[in-house]
């Protein structure tokens, strides 16, 4: 028996659950993450920056994402390289020197 991809409804194969999951994923992906024009963002400084100077807001956001990614990747590399001897995991006796 061939499965019809255009068939709607359950049909005993669980297609309705798959459609609802797909629809939920589509709705999640279609929902805006940040809406600078929403009334709840009237006092938000970043929303005001996006509305008034989009290029600066984009550069600020991209810079923050890159800096955060670099810091996280450095810390992960240190953890992999040094393992249990990594300084944040081995606090020692509390002396600086």
From TrEMBL:
Residues 1-21 are annotated as: Disordered. The lineage of its organism: Eukaryota, Sar, Stramenopiles, Ochrophyta, Bacillariophyta. It comes from Cyclostephanos tholiformis. This is Uncharacterized protein.
């Amino acid at each position: 028996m061939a499965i019809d991809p255009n068939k709607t409804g359950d049909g005993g194969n669980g297609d309705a659950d798959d459609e609802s999951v797909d629809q939920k994923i589509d709705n999640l992906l279609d929902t805006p993450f940040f809406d600078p024009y929403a009334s709840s963002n009237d006092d938000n400084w970043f929303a005001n920056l996006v509305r008034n100077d989009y290029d600066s807001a984009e550069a600020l956001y991209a810079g923050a994402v890159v800096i955060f990614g670099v810091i996280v990747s450095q810390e992960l590399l240190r953890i992999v390289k040094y393992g249990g001897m990594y300084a944040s995991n081995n606090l020692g006796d509390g002396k600086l020197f």
